[in-house]
Amino acid sequence: MIRFFYNLLFPLALLFFLPGYTVKMLRRGNYRNKFGQRLGFYDRETRAALAAGPQTWLHAVSVGEVMVALKLASKMKEHEPSLRIALTTTTTTGFALARKQAPEWIEVLYTPLDFWPIMRRAFEIIRPTRVVLVEAEVWPNLTAIAHRKKIPIALVNARLSPRSERRFRKFNYFVRPYFQKLDLICVPEQDDVARWVSLGVDSTRIHPVGSIKFDPTNVAPRPEMPRAVLDKLGIDPARPILLDGSTHPGEEEILARIFQQLRREFPALFLIIAPRHVERTREIAAQLRALGVSSIRRSEAGTASATDCLLLDTTGELRDWYSVATVVFMGKSLTARGGQNPVEAIVADRPVVFGPHMENFASLARVLVAAGGALQPNDELALTTDLEALLRNPGERERLVRQARGVLDTHRGATERTAELLASLTARAA
Predict the structure, then answer these.
(1) What kind of fold does domain 224-411 have according to CATH?
(2) Catalytic residues, which ones?
């Protein structure tokens, strides 16, 4: 009955959200490419690829989840050499990253809308033998159809914050039936087990394995590319470099002001800004110019050019760029809420600083700060002071990295443990 009303109201909800969704697609661009896949329509080439063998349907929403999915897929392939994966993602940025980095045995698709006739058609084409959902992406029709077809469903890296738990519990009557259909839930920490049990999940199906996102195994950066780009710009990688990763609106102007202030003590300081959404680079360049900070875009960096700042307007390269930074500031934590994942910067042996809003990574941020593995200033003045101290003191930078590495080691092997559980799930279902 719940799903009946869900499907009845779905077209109305789609019409309500369509204007905002259309604006977002137009702003991010490339929305026409493979758009039919969102409606469950696949071209001949895609159908042929999906018919090449049994598929594991691996679903990841956007860039962060796609990185987790690709990391997990690689480990799953070690356990299951004949593995083939249909990787679905919702955003154009996630799709572009997946297409760029996925090996030939992964077919990258857009996520079909969770409307019963569309999702049913997608299942008929993909014909999955297993469905693996990354993080809290449990859609009613996807889950119900897989369950009816006796296809095992797993939820991996199932981070559930206290805030999300409270939200789900408010709608427990609606969400409980779908959570109960999950055959396996891999959670980052022991505390997550009780939260999922409170939502109606059988505790025997929940396994605390650590976080794939925080697992430092096999995520080492490749510094060759960023060093080559800096060389073309005439930037010596030995110069002090402040890298601001995954920034959101409002943060770039603050960071540019801080950069100008720091330049008084560190004249050779160079700034790299990697906005979370690359379509904002033109807007950011204009803001920097108004503040007297010259910049050049990564896609335009061909020859030596005197500039204060490099704007990264390419997708999927940030992990490598961390390797050339002296200090890293994690965005979406100063003027926006949620924060960004600091793991790749830590694995690159770079000291990390983030603002007060790390809600999406609250547990990790809390442990990092408590262990002396990261700094968390509350405002622009404190951020300036902390960055200045780190730029001045190599020993402090090394201490932060060492302590942060110790925190990540508690999640080492999470990807391997998740892959093993997924392999055993398939074996039980066979």
Answers:
(1) Rossmann fold (3.40.50)
(2) 65
